[in-house]
Amino acid sequence: MPASRAYSGRVPCDLFKGKIYGIEPGAGETKLYEDKVQNAYGLKGEYELVKSNTSAIPAQLDRAYRKNEPIAVTLWSPHWAYDKYDLTRVADPEKTWGANNQIRTLANKGFPEKYSELNGWLKNWHMAPDELMSLEQAIQKAGRGREGEGVQNWIDAHPGIVDEMAPVK
Tens-of-pLDDT digits for all 169 residues of the chain? Predict the structure, then answer.
């Protein structure tokens, strides 16, 4: 699995041809970039945010990566691309993207009582970001319609993880 690095220096605009590739115009990530990120780091006017869609970002990234060309994209973490490519994260000391992202489990009020064992598993479930990114990459690699195979391949490559996440009594 490629290592993810952080970069905290100033990147010359011409390195990325003055463009940062982003997702849908109405997405929260796009709004954060436009309202906070570009202003906090002096990017407004230097970089154009090229808005497209969530599935176009990996295609742009893949194209640039194959050509060994620098590219700047907005990606959230965890994301399978961090597992597939050797990417460098730009540091965000101002925490403009947010300080602490989490994945949460939501259920109706009766769920814990009705499904107590499953509720216990979900309550105690934890995956490190690298584990989740590698799982996402395995699913992505398997392809549409074969997601289950991707999950099984990942489980096979991580022996004991299911027993750790969902112990059978």
Answer: 444 445 555 666 678 889 999 988 888 889 999 999 999 988 888 899 999 888 888 899 999 999 999 999 988 878 888 888 888 888 888 888 887 667 778 899 999 999 998 888 888 888 888 888 889 999 999 999 999 999 999 999 998 888 887 776 6
How big is the CA angle at 5 (ends 102 and 130), to the nearest 5 degrees? 45
Prediction pTM value: 0.69
User: Which residue blocks in the chain are alpha helix, DSSP H?
Assistant: 28-32, 38-40, 56-66, 81-84, 111-114, 116-124, 129-142, 147-157, 161-165
Nearest to 21 by CA among 42, 41, 48, 39: 48
Domains of the chain: 5-90 (3.40.190.100), 111-165 (no CATH)
